[in-house]
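step: validate -> pass
step: tokenize input -> pass
step: predict -> running
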Amino acid sequence: MCAIDINADRLTLVYNIFQFANYIYKFSSIYSQLYKHYLRSLDFKNLSDKLISKEAKELLDRPSIYSLV
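step: predict -> pass
step: emit ->
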């Protein structure tokens, strides 16, 4: 009778481990879908305009020596 209880405890432990792994898989799947949606929703042109200062934009818009050659 004791061996049956030990095996039952091991089975419940294994079952709980698989349930936990399943929850992690579902969470990571949902997280990756949200992250992909977030990346698709970003407007990279507007984002780069916000990150680059006005002085840097003026320098980038100016023709360089190398483009004149």
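step: describe -> Residues 2-41 form the longest helix (40 residues).
step: cleanup -> pass
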